[in-house]
Amino acid sequence: MTWLLALIVLPGVAQAQLGRTQHIRASLVAESATPRAGAPVTLAFVMTPAAGWHGYWKNPGDAGVETQATWTLPRGVSAGPIAYPVPQTLIVAGLMNYVYEGRYAQPLMLTLPAGLAKGTRLPIRVRLDYLACTREICVPEKAELAIALTVGDGAVTPAARAAFDGFRAALPKPLGGRARFAVAGGRFRLAVPMPASVRVAEPYFFPLTDGVIDYAAPQRVSRRGDALIIETAAKGPAPRRMAGVLRIGRGKGLTLDAVPGTVPAAGVAIGAADEGDAPAGSGGAGTLLAALGGALLGGLLLNIMPCVFPILSLKALSLARGGGDERSVRREALAYAAGVILVCVALGAILLALRAGGSAAGWAFQLQDPRVIVVLMLLTAAIGFNLAGLFELPAISGGGALAGKGGTGGAFWTGALAAFVATPCTGPFMGAALGAALVLPTVAALAVFAGLGLGMAIPFLLLGYVPRVRAMLPRPGAWMDVMRRVLALPMFATALGLAWILGRQAGVDGMMLGLVAAVIVAIGLWWVGGRQAGGRTRAWWPLAPAVAAACALVAVVPRAPAGASTAVAVADVKAVPFDRAKLAAYQAAGTPVFVYFTADWCLTCKVNEKAAIEREAVQTAFAKAGIVTMVGDWTDGDADISRFLGEHGRSGVPLYLFAGKGAPLKVLPQVLTPGTLTALAA
Question: Considering the entire predicted model, what is its pTM?
């Protein structure tokens, strides 16, 4: 149909073809000229329209043609689909066109076969067919493009990285939730989950599923709670699924794959005039301040976690031992804060990059890889052995030697370590704050992650900059050595907990590899401690082969599916695994449902489960009230759970929800008590 309509608006094709002028100049560029064998490399068609001309989106609308690529590739090399940036709308003679009126890029992935020798030359050729139009005429154009790649190390120049980062930034990002649509009475209605605090500009839905809506019909966008409601004229019957892109700002959009379902009534109408020209997802100063406040409080509470508190306590003891050198103490406080904040910002930046690349990752995403669990286990075990006195490593211990040197280097790395080992936890205030960060602009989102780090660093900053607080520390004495060894116990407990998580993620074989690695590192540290006690120089060298052997074991740790905790055998009540369809069915039937999302590496989750959810009184009350319990296991980063979390403004676990008879889901506090849950049954 689009081809037929395209021909109708092509009165100038013959004349333009005679001139052989390229009205949209196409070029082919590669992110790396030396891609690695067995790895993908990103290419891009860079399209530059002449003034007054435009190209077309994948679904061109009522008229137009999408870009077609015919490849000539070396054996074993394959090209992926073309990705399209967020388009603009253009109405010509009552026909809606989805177009690009300025320079745009269409990235794609080229996959190389494994086993190619370095230096192998890879000639890449492609014929590109596309349509170039003005408001009056259209010209089918083609370009014969070529680029030569050489198998190498995959290096990317700064200029190429900046260019391709810009190309990727223009692509729509995946929606962190499930959209629903309905077709009835000649109207198409779509509900898209979007937190009420998030502002949008110039909202518009670009359909990828053809023949469902009238492209030229106006779209009405309204906001109802945490959802955007899009309404327009329907053109055909309801499909099984509806794909498309929702524009939420100039050049910004979200890809969505909607399913049939209930769409709420329209809410408060919005549009460009109502939302202003704020960037998509800006959320305003109020949203940013609220997210920052939650991040600060959440980070502050992380300090009482058993894997962080010993590290903070040990640094406090180093201040007590170090005396009253005000400048030195303040430098240590700043260095510790810098380590914490930089790690939180780095983890946040990686998370945002993963989501921008299409992943549904959430906070603590790195803990879904068992190799990271092994590294954390080795670190916490090493800290425990250090606290127990097996060896001295100033960068971890913060002891007398470090204090005597000023300790800024040790303080920085201690702060970085504290932030890294704290990531399994999403405590009170953190969930909403980090969920908001994922829909804020990049700079604002990174500010929220920095706020989380600042919250963690506040206690040490107070010790460093408020002498009265520091004066409350007990005087140095023999008790400090006893306290140091006591603090080793929660670190060992954390290491054992991580070993259990490793067993859940990678099976018994994976856990055994991790424990062997821990034993090897412990032997190396014991050797180091013996050399230190003997006063030998370069006492640390036995640790090098131990770490090398441990790294080799870490590299081969398998990733086996963690068997989800599908049931809780308490008071003869069992939880069922989370499933969207089952949840919807329970709600439709008026069955009360308690839903909670957990992960084996989430300390807050496990505390709530043992202290509240799995209590016999709670389960008995649930059974009497007919409340169904559903559990979502996010240990391995289930993508559907990630999307569901995003729908409720969260980027990590825990998340607790309850729906009474005929009532919608409501979010419960992140810290549960038996009384909170039994009240639901009442």
Answer: 0.46
